[in-house]
Write a structure and sequence with these properties.
17% strand; 157 residues; alpha+beta
Length: 157
């Protein structure tokens, strides 16, 4: 058992580690949101390219204006989905909510004590096997570079 003096000595380091985990988890939420925006934008750009093809049947000007308007909306106001954290006893739940008031799902679990990132197995539990660690610089960078809004980066490699 640790003495009170040992507790007082290690407390600032533990507090900093917890703050770092939360900061990196919020960064992951932001990266997932940006990936989702990029995906929506890309889909509308692909649609515009399809409109320009000879195989497109329909009102080209109406369709082009619609997709250009959607791209402008994404660029100026973003998308309606959001990624955010809910705090539990042991884990942060990284939640993906589709539009305000829409369906919610657990995207990932992040261990609050050591920064381990897990794929979700259900609403209440992570899947077995650590996928990334947010406190390890190289693991965190790989996580942030590979992350995608649909969670494909969380499947075991």
């Amino acid at each position: 058992m640790a003495t009170f003096a040992e507790f007082c000595e290690t407390k600032p380091m533990k507090d900093q580690m917890l703050a770092d985990i939360q900061k990196h988890a919020v960064t992951l939420c932001g990266a997932l949101y940006e990936d989702l925006k990029s995906t929506h934008r890309r889909h509308h750009s692909i649609a515009i390219n399809h409109i320009d093809s000879d195989t497109f049947k329909g009102d080209k000007e109406y369709e082009r204006a619609y997709h250009l308007r959607k791209i402008h909306e994404i660029d100026t106001t973003g998308v309606n989905d959001e990624f955010y954290l809910e705090t539990g006893r042991k884990y942060y739940k990284l939640i993906h909510q589709c539009s305000p008031g829409g369906s919610r799902s657990v995207h990932a679990f992040i261990d609050k004590t050591n920064g381990d990132v897990y794929k979700s197995a259900s609403w209440k539990a992570p899947a077995k096997g650590v996928r990334y660690n947010l406190l390890d610089d190289s693991s965190r960078e790989e996580c942030l570079s590979r992350c995608d809004w649909a969670g494909g980066y969380l499947y075991a490699r």
